[in-house]
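User: Can you predict the 3D structure for this chain?
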Amino acid sequence: MGHLIVLDTETTDLDPDKGAKLIEIAWIELSDTTGKWEPTFSVEARIQYDGPISPQAQAVHHIRSDMLTEEAGAVKRYELITTLLNRMQPDTFFIAHNAGFDSRFLPEINRPWICTMRSAKFIWPNAPSYSNQVLRYWLKLEPEIPPGKFPHQAIYDVTVTTGILMEMLKRYTPQQLLQITTTPFKLKTIPFGKHRGMSFEQIPVDYLRWLQSQSDLDADLKHTIDSILKP
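Assistant: Here is the predicted structure, written as structure tokens:
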């Protein structure tokens, strides 16, 4: 038996270390009690909050402060997180699309995180992009979106992520997806800068050496450059 919790968060800004707060969360649970992964439980909730929400964040999720009051149905953060933690089982994996972001807003969770965005880059290297919506249409998925919901509402996005995950689970176990998430792999093309979209083999060596000297490289980019420039 296995248990997966797929979740999505909406926040007041991007960086919890600079005061950004969690204001909406939705999750969908999957179990494989019948030998096939199936959704079994879901939650959608907004969190009480009376502070500022950045215009950039509001432009994405359209959540206003008046939607985060007790009168509007928002709940206390600790109550919601307690519910989430109580749903965990000994074999639970957490999953998010860009898990590095969502996990920072949920420091109470001390479990393995699978990132569907990162896994997609490994599983489908020829995908045109790796956002939820691009993968949804590129894979020709038909997730059952709850009526009246729109992109960047947590329940909408987590439903799409669940569809992407279930496509992955046709080929990989959760343990394999966790390994993909946590293991650096070689990129085919560079994702930014003046050489964006070019194969690494086509990029001037001097530029690769300069990149290699930078301190803020992500693990995959560093692994790719190191493998090309190895002695």
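The first strand starts at residue 3 and ends at 11. The chain has two domains: 3-182, 185-231.
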